[in-house]
Amino acid sequence: MQEADAVRSLAALAQTVRLRLFRSLVVAGPDGLTPTVLAEQLEIAGNTLSFHLKELMHAGLVTQERQGRNLIYRAAFATMNELLAYLTENCCEGAACSTTDAAADCRC
Fold first, then answer.
1. Residue 30 in this model has a pLDDT that exceeds 90
2. Cα separation of 58 and 50, whole Å?
């Protein structure tokens, strides 16, 4: 992932509704969700939902697929994993990170 892509992804997530929307799609997994279900879950208007979905799609964090009469939105897990890898690339000075208590005290 390039720095510009990371900035675009992080900027898209730096808004409450979009973060909640993305997290809902991550929880839904590969099945994704329709706009109707998303709007109900997040208690937001359809036009507001459309705006935020467009922003997440522009950042590459969400995909859209037509299934019959429905649109299905899914989290773009590959992009999410690339972003996480980019953010943690030099974690712990390049050494493998551990989940032990000793690693919790690490000041990397």
1. yes
2. 12
Closest CA to 55 of 43, 72, 73: 73
What is the C-alpha R_g of the chain? 16
Contacting residues for 87 by C-beta, under 8 A, at least 6 apart: 6
Which backbone phi and psi does 67 adopt, to 5 degrees? -125, 100
Query: Taking 50 as the threshold, does the pLDDT of residue 63 lie above it?
Result: yes
For 11-23, the pLDDT digits (tens) are 999 999 999 999 9
Options 3.40.50.410, 3.50.30.20, 1.10.10.10, 3.10.450.50; CATH for 3-104 is 1.10.10.10
* SS3 label, residue 72: strand
What is the DSSP secondary structure assignment for residue 33, as one 8-state letter? Answer: B
Q: 83: which DSSP letter?
A: H
Q: Where are the domains of the chain?
A: 3-104
